[in-house]
From TrEMBL:
Name the record gives this protein: Methylated-DNA--protein-cysteine methyltransferase
Segments forming domain Methylguanine DNA methyltransferase ribonuclease-like: 5-68
Residues annotated as domain Methylated-DNA-[protein]-cysteine S-methyltransferase DNA binding: 79-164
UniProt keyword annotations, A-Z: DNA damage, DNA repair, DNA-binding, Metal-binding, Methyltransferase, Phosphoprotein, Transferase, Zinc
One Pfam family from the record: Methyltransf_1N
Cofactor(s) the protein needs: Zn(2+)
InterPro entries from the UniProt entry: MethylDNA_cys_MeTrfase_AS, MethylDNA_cys_MeTrfase_DNA-bd, MethylDNA_cys_MeTrfase_DNAb, MethylG_MeTrfase_N, MGMT_N_sf, WH-like_DNA-bd_sf
Lineage of producing organism: Bacteria, Bacillati, Actinomycetota, Actinomycetes, Kitasatosporales
């Protein structure tokens, strides 16, 4: 696994992306500065940098990068794959709806518990942005996002980019 950094207009600053021979294995919004080893594969650096840049500039709706799923397993991977497959650009799904659609929880007798579990799975999503956990929202609002206040700002920024939320006066993204 090797790391590269992609400059972004996101409130969190640059993305830190881990790549392997299979694809993107991890994406981090905060931290990872100085993570070793650094990616030296120019084709991987270019693919990630160009596609993320185009997406954040509003010129791409899908990143279309290969994903290395090795950092998620079992039910977590099943929920993430359901999200990737069923919730496209510009759409959202609630934590509870994703729990049901994934089929991981069987007959959901305690929907609040399943929704909270999905929330924890989203917070532990190793390939955020590629598997768009920002599109998973609470039944009564935006919900959370890893990284505290900066994380919520990133989620709002991404949902505004995708047209789910209206731009505010301080919006600094593409129009």
């Amino acid at each position: 696994m090797s790391w590269l950094t992609v400059d972004t207009p996101l409130p969190s600053g640059p993305l830190h992306v881990a790549v392997t021979a299979q694809g993107v294995a991890a994406v981090g919004f905060l931290g990872r500065e100085g993570e070793l080893p650094r990616c030296a594969d120019e084709s991987k650096i270019a693919a990630v940098t160009v596609r993320v840049g185009e997406y954040l500039a509003g010129r791409r709706r899908m990143l279309d990068l290969p994903i290395d799923w090795s950092l998620s397993t079992g039910p977590h991977r099943a929920v993430l794959r359901t999200l990737l497959r069923e919730v496209p650009f510009g759409r959202t799904i609630t934590y509870g709806e994703l729990a049901v659609r994934s089929g991981v929880f069987g007959e959901v007798e305690e929907p609040g518990l399943a929704a909270r579990t999905v929330g924890q799975m989203m917070a532990a999503n190793p390939v955020a942005l590629l598997v768009p956990c920002h599109r998973v929202v609470a039944a009564d609002g935006i919900g959370g996002f890893g990284g505290g206040r900066v994380g919520i700002d990133v989620k709002r920024w991404l949902l505004t980019l995708e047209g789910v939320l209206e731009p505010t006066l301080d919006w600094n993204g593409p129009l």
